[in-house]
Design goal:
Blueprint (H helix, E strand, L loop, with lengths): L2 E3 L16 H14 L3 E3 L1 E3 L4 H4 L7 E3 L10
Parallel strand pairs: 1-2, 3-4
Length: 73
C-alpha cells in the first residue's frame, strides 16, 4: 500500500509536537524504510506558512526553509 508519510523535525512550541526532533524524525524514516512498506514523503521543503496553522506542519520537509538538507536526507 502506498501511504504519504510525514514526521516533523521541530515545532513552534515543543508542547504542540512532543518528540519532534531531527533525530527522532530520522529514526522514524529509517524504521519505515526497514519495514518494506511503500510510501511517499509528504513534503520536500519546510513550509513556513504552514507553521502558523499547524505548529509541526511547517517542519515536515526533507530540506529546511533555507534549502539545507536535514539529517534524514
Amino acid at each position: 500500500m502506498f501511504q504519504e508519510a510525514a514526521f516533523p523535525s521541530a515545532a513552534i512550541s515543543s508542547e504542540s509536537a512532543p518528540g519532534a526532533t531531527p533525530a527522532a524524525r530520522a529514526v522514524f524514516f529509517e524504521k519505515l524504510i526497514e519495514s518494506g512498506e511503500q510510501f511517499v514523503y509528504s513534503f520536500a521543503f519546510d513550509a513556513y506558512f504552514a507553521a502558523r496553522s499547524s505548529p509541526p506542519g511547517g517542519f515536515g520537509g526533507l530540506w529546511d526553509a533555507d534549502l539545507k538538507p536535514k539529517p534524514v536526507v
